[in-house]
Structures are given as C-alpha cells and as structure tokens.
C-alpha cells in the first residue's frame, strides 16, 4: 500500500474537518444546509448556503490540484458534484418563485422579492412574504457571482435554456440595485430594527460584482451553445460604481460603516476599483469595529447583547446608546480580514489574523475546531467594558459552528496551508481591477446626415459626413428604442411565464456605444437622447448640443478596460437631420437669423468633435466603416431565434421625405405661409371681451410661493417677495442690458441677457447667447395626432413669450360677475377669429378654468373637440415656436411629466442628495429615497396641485440638478438637501436684481427663459459665481463653492477695474481736456460701481447658500459633539435639538443630519438660515466656552436666535458709535427690513475680520456664557 505524502495527509485532515462541521449537516435529498437547528431547524439561508458552496468548491479545486492517487480525483469529482447540486437546489428554490421575479422587475416592491431562506427539505417557503426581511439583494447577487466564478472554473451549474432564461431575469431583477433600498446583509434594514429599508453599500457592491462577473463569464454551458450567454447592461454597472464610490466607507443612512463592507472591497466581491477608497474603508472598519474576538457588525448593534430585550424585535431609539461599546464581536470577519491580507500578499497581517483566528476558535470534545457565531459581554462585565473598550472577557454565543464562518475557515485553512493560491478562487481575475488600471481610450464618433440636403449644408461648413443610406450594407442603424425592444425578449420563457427586460427602463449610452452582431448584420443603435422628443427641453438646440457634449464626456470617463464592458473601443453614432439646421414655422425675419444661429450651434459642436476634443473628452471622428476593426462588438443570439434576418434593407433612422418636413396642418393656414408677423385681422376683434379673458388667465399663470395662495387665488406681489427676502436690498440700474435682436421690439424681455462671448473654461455649460438663441428647432422625431391635423389655425410669429407680460398688473382683479356673463360661444368665436398663439393659449386656458378639461367646445362640426385636445395642440405649437412661458403653462395644465425626471431624481438620491418639492416651509414634501414613477407622479401632484407653471419649472430644475450632479459632483460637496422651491425663488431674485425688475415681472420673465439659460443660471448659482462675471467674459480658474468663494471674486473684480482704468488713462494722454473729463467720469463710475457691487454681495451670497442648504464641512459632526456636551441641547427657531439625539444616533450618521435639516428647513428666510448655521458652527468650535465655564444653563437649551439677536444689538451699537451707514436704518432705533429684525448690514458683512459676523457672534457668545 502506497503511503500518502505529508501534504496529502494535511489535505485529508482539512477535508475531515469540513465533513464533520459542514457536510454532515447537508440534507441528503436537496443538498441544502440548515444551520440553526435549535431555533430554525429546517431553514436554509441563501447566503449561508452559498458560502458553504464556496468551501466545497475550494476543496474540489484543492483535490484536483493536489491529487496523489486516483482516489483523490474521485473525491474531487464527488466534491464538485456536491457543490453543483447545492447550487442547483438554490436555483430551483428561486425558480419556484418566478412570478415574484416578474413582479419585482416592474415595481421593486419588497413583498415581491425572492425569499432569503427556504425549506432545506422541501425547497419551499418557510415564512410569509411580510414575516421576514426577504429583500436582500446582496444574497441573490452573491449567488450569481458564485455561479459565474464556478462556471469559469469548469463546473456546469445551469442545465437547460429555461434556467438560462431565469438567470437572465435575475440580472434584470438585481440591475436596479443601486437605487433599490433593501434590508441588507443583517436582514433588518435600519439599525433600529423597525423594518425600514435602506440603500446599503454592501448590497450595491455585491450587485455590481455579480453583474460584472456574469458579463465576463461568457456562455453558461461552457461549450459555446447558442443562446446561453447572459447579457448585462454596462450602464447599470457604472451606476453602481458611482453610487458605491459616493457612499463608502458609509454603509447606509443609519450605519456609519459596517463590517459587511469587507465582502465587497475584497473576497468574494472585489467590487471597488479605487485602491485609496479600499484602504480608507478597511481602515474605517478596523478603527471603528475591530476587536479582540472579531469585528462588530456596526456601531450600537444590540443583537444578542445582554441588554437587549429578547421579547421584541425592534429597538426604541433612546435605548440604542446603551449598546455602545458592548456590541457583540463576530469571528467571521477575522476570516474576511485574513483572506483580504492573503489577496494583498501582506505576510505580517496574514500571520496576525491567523493567530487571532486560532484564539477565537472553540474546540469541541471530539477535538474539532469550531467558529462560533459571535462573542458577547456578560452582564457582570458590562460596566468594565464600557469604561475601557476591550478590557473584559467575552463568551461565545449563537450557533457553533456557524455555517457562514466555518465555511470561510475551511477556505482560510486551504490557502494558509498552500493547497490553493488566492487566484484559484478568482478565475475571472476580479481581484486585479484595483491594481491594473489603464487610461481611458478615445471615443469614436460617427456623424450621419439623414438626407442629401443636410449633407450638403454640412459640406458647405467644411464638415464631410456620410448619409444613412450610404452606409455599407453590412451595417444597420436603429434607434435605442429598438434595442430596448430586443432586450425585452432576452429572458422570455413561456414555461415560467417570464418576460424580458422591462421596456420602460432606460437604455444607457454605454449600451448603445458598441456594435451588435445579429446574424450577418452589425446593428448600430443611436443614443437614447436621439431617439425621440423626450420632453420640451430637447426643443432647445443648445440643450441638445450640451447633451452631446456631456454624454461624450461621460462615455470617455466611463468606458474603461477595468469596467469590463467589452473588448474594444466605444462608438457613438449621431444623426443630424434638417430640423437641427433650420427653423421651420417661424416668421421670415426670425427664420433667417434663427437658422443662421442654429447652424452655427450644430456645426460648431461637430467641428469640436472633428478637432478631437470636446467637453474634456478625447474623440476621433470618422466614418462607421473606419471604426469596424476597433469597435467593441456584442453578439446577440436567441435560443428561439425570432430576429427577422430576411430584412436585407438598411433602416433609415429618423429619415424623412422632404414633403414630411413641412408641417402644413399645424403651422399656418393656406395663403399665410411665409408671411411674417401677425396681421391685425389675425387677432381677436373684440378686444374688450378678450381683455377680461386675458386678465383671468394671467392671474393663474404666476408661480404660487405661499401655501395660502392656492386657496385664495392670490399670486406673488412685490410685498410678498420682499417678505421672503428675495428682492435685492438696494435696487439700481441693471448691471447688464439685454442684447437686442432684430425683433427686439417684440421681445424686450427675452433671455437672461448674457453675451455669447462669455464662455468660461471652468463651466461645462456655455453661457447663454443673445435672445435669438433660445428659438432653436428640435428635429421632429415623431409625429403627433395634432401635427397630422390641428383644430386651431395659428400663425407662427417670432419667439419670446413676451405677450403674456403685456398689460399685466398684479393689482388687477377681474370681477367674478363679468366672467360669468361671458358665454362659451363668445370664447369659441374668438378662438375661430384669432391665429395668434398667445391669444389661443389665453382663450383655451380660460375654457379650461371655467368648464374643465373634458368640455366639448363644438369647435368643429361632426366631432367632439374637448378643451384638453385644444390644450394639447397649443402645447405642441408652443414647443415648435419655443414660446417657453406657454410651453410651461400648457405642460403643467396637462400634467406632463418629463421623461428625464425619474432618472434625475435617482442620480441625486443615490449620491446622498435629498430633495424637497413644493413651497418652502409651508407645503414642502421631501424625497428621501428612490421612488417609482407612480410615486413620483403623486408627489409632484400633491406639491403643485394648483400651480401648473411651478409643476413644470420644478421638474426642469430637478432634471438640471440631476445632470449636474453626474457631470459636476464637486458643486454639491457641501449640500445635503436641495429645496427646489427656494431655488426657484433665488433664480427669480437674481433675475430681478440683474434686470431691475419688479417681483411679479421677475417671475414672469423666469418663465420665458429658455431651458439652456435656466440650466446655466443654476450652474452659476451652484458654483458660487456672479452672473455678471459670466456676462463680462471673464475666465474663471474653476468653480468654487462655499462661503469663501466670493472673497476672491471681489478682489479680482476690483483688480479688473483698476486695469481698465489704467488702460483708459494711457489712451487719454492725447488731450488734457479729455483726460480731465475721463478722470472725473471714472471716479464717479468707480464710486457708483463699487457701491452697487460691494454692497449686497454677502447678503446675496447668504441667500443663495441658504436656498441651496449649503453647510460648512463636518457641520453635522461638530454639531453632534456640541449637543453631546450640552445637557439641554440647542434651540433653533423655537425647536430644540435635544441631547437625546446623540443617544439615538452616532456622530456621522446621516439620520442625524436629516433631523438637523428638518429643523433648519423650518426657517423660510435663506439668509437667516445661513446666519444660524454660522452661529451653530461657532458654538461648536468654541469648545472651551462650552466645557470649562459653569455658567452653561442646565435648565434651558442654548437659544441660537437669542445669540443672533444679541450679536445684532452689539453690531448696531458699535456702528452707531462709529457713525456708519447703519445710522440710516437700524441706528435710529427702528428696525430695517432685514429678516427676523436683524440689520441688513449685518447680513451683508463678511464672515471673518474685525467687523465680520463672526466677530459679533463671538462677542454675543462670550456674554452668554461668561
């Protein structure tokens, strides 16, 4: 008999350990493991069973590698088959719940999720849908990750195409994990155990790992079988990456960090590619959670501690603090740390963790080494452990051996003994992502013209492109919607009653930026934003071109080899049609200038692409055939091939015949086409009757900014705006004059008034050009019923949306009796008379208000014409003519939801930026977690039930914020919650200040601004820059945010004026008389300009930061420290932030920040809110005052409002003694119009310096404490 080698004996010993501690608990029929035999004897947890499969798989690979005899190969085969049977049983358990997967794909409801545990004997459910926290995306993702790794190693788990279809549906099930709150690894969600789901970084990381692994594994049969390839959307992987990097080292809202993050920064997930972030997360876990017996799961975890009440599942918030320092420690995380050290090849850490693991093992009477579930502090040692962490002994508790930990211990033994290398447990080489990082490669761009006319227009401008019909026959161009329809077939299974990917989900640019091989064809899918008119925003040509730029930049940064998207480079195909280069439907005067501008906008963007650099991205522009050998290719195959390969002709994407480009039925009546302007006969003849209707319509067009307005039919007046602290304190001449267009006499208030030469390098958005620029025509991507034949005859005139301002007065109120006397016949007759779009909108709006949307106007004989149908037609025409105020009004009345809205909300929320919609502090509703489309629609309806303009404008603002947070995340570094209502108010305030408008006119002008101009204004506000700086053409070195961003701007502007003065004085030496006049003129200009620019700068800055809810770095953590020291807490705006909050929540817990935000958001005045934040921050910084002096009140909280009032009194008294300009306002003893009775000059003081706000607040604090 041959003797075994020493290594063989050691391997047998490890196998024997696994058999006695793991395999003997396996069900002989199902191969599933039930770990907790005492409390749940038949419950097989998915997560525990997958880790048991890892142990069996590791043993299988070890015996394969180290076999001495044939018996060893037999043992390896047995282990391999046992592992496969276990994975197949888990798959069968899930397939029995296929109907849940189908429902969850559509709605992401917790009750529709796959169960987290099943019967070990019957493979059926063991608890009800609502009786357990089943939604655990990490468990499902871990199963898919393991399936991919085992398949790559040579084991075949999937047996037939029905299982392939189900696995594909599991991909659709988890791909939205980056925005789906779940119950997490510990099955309880929020750490209070009250069943509150959260976005968990550990779940998102495991989802990303599973998607990447399945994308890399190839076919599941391992033999190249047709239809066994799993398709993954790379955009969802990139979304997970962005969210994960924004969250780490945080686990969720309620958990600062979590030991479960070890599973995604190292084995088995390897989901994080940023080595610095991996190191930071590891250090955070070790510093916060690591102990002698393992790691705590998270801070203040009460699970199985002696102070936990076992009679109830949930915790009271006030009792969480009692668990601090006595949380149970879990040895399973010593295994994870040991595996991590092995993958890092850190020998010292390997030895340290191995010794520690050996110390925490429990030796049974038979001599086997068990890894227990946890170690807890006994009751008699609680006080000692709280006094000094880690000083007291602990005793093991829970299932011993603990299946999850015991499985990892077996793997650690195999690696430590050298039977396996770490790489052998990662056949897909996922571990290499953090170390092998390559620079992004340039993006390949092909521009196609949809017609010969467009091709010729571009050729005249020096741009040579192919037409769609000139492509080689092997290529087929289709819109992104066709790819969505194709993906809807992937995963279809009649037997399981399962469909494919939901059609309503977006198809991202990473998915459309590669070739798809279907049969003998190579299909090119154009980006989704080119597919159709998703919203009225795309009717602004600058928004469309900005979309081109931002998407190319995103594609350049996201398409990296480490993401494992595909082998090859990205290819994006953009189609230009006639609608992008001409302004059909406008008057002849506007058409000439507008067409010239539109051509220059589009051709300018294409020339940037052709030059090889746009928006920070390196690109190369050629024909499609030139990129064939370098482009990533994905092969689409179907088991039941229902793709019609007989279609040999290429698809003419977005191509139109010339006769279809003219919308005869919608634009002008016959005989009026091509005539400019609106004739007197085109308007309503009875002007007195129309004036009543017009005034009634105008009363309901302005934005409601007070919750009481909705019930009283009131709108914003100048006094309201002053009360809300929005009107500029010292109005003067507008700093800019609006550029005049050839039709400026008709549109005096068009645009914000920026010059086209004001583009700054630091801005990703070009600053708005003169007034003509907003009237850009979007390519007609689909034809509506109204376009086929409209009811109203409209003469399209020049853009501007200014007629809504003519004759408007906020003081005019229409008598109810006069409106009642006007019959529907008169209004309908006026509709027949007029062809002016503004008048048509006014009349239809009046019918809408008086008779409702479904009222039949009888405008045509033979069929019903409802008011809603007329409003739809007006909306379409307003979009075509870029009448933005009419677009927003009609869109709001029709309750149209922008298609980009759900995606924008998701972009913000997953990056930890919350939203509130509605009127500030009165009717606001917070959006704190991802919502379904239906939920989002309901929230918007509740917030803007009676305000159609705000309904539309708020959606636009959210879409812009969602775009900017993705492309310019640094703008949001100091912002936690964005209040859309306050942002709208500040935009109106800035417009009033810039153009010297009244409050009502500012709000109306805000509605006329084009989408691109609105986005530009929002970008400037977020970046902390002055709108004047942009218009003066100054080039900033970079966008800065926060309280310090304005100091440098003031100095730069002063320096700029001095330089301009010096240049003028040199030129003026030619004549002494002219020199004297110039000097005197400059002195007067300097004094006036300095006064206008310097005064109000800090007041304005505080208003903007207050509206954006911007706070200093570490504000919430320092406030937590302050509350922890103050027994009665801090009072703000009459609401007390009590000391108990520090007992309920930890220092950096986002839930604590939410509690603080709830209090701060009750302050309606943004500048006062900022002053409150400055005061709280100073209180937090003055630790000596709040700790050493005994005069801290023990019977009442520190009143921040009282401190500010004292600081204001000190400020006014000092300035009265100095005889400053404060004597003109508060120095007389009468308060000025500053918010909360605080002098407006204090609001306008710099934060630091001898006369800064900090100086007076500190004096007030000293008097309070001392």
TrEMBL record:
GO terms for molecular function: calmodulin binding. This is Phosphorylase b kinase regulatory subunit. GO terms for cellular component: phosphorylase kinase complex; plasma membrane. It comes from the Eukaryota. Pathway: Glycan biosynthesis; glycogen metabolism. One of its GO terms (biological process) is glycogen metabolic process. It is a lipid-anchor. Belongs to the phosphorylase b kinase regulatory chain family. Residues 9-981 form the GH15-like domain. It comes from Pristionchus mayeri. Residues 799-811 have a biased composition (Low complexity).
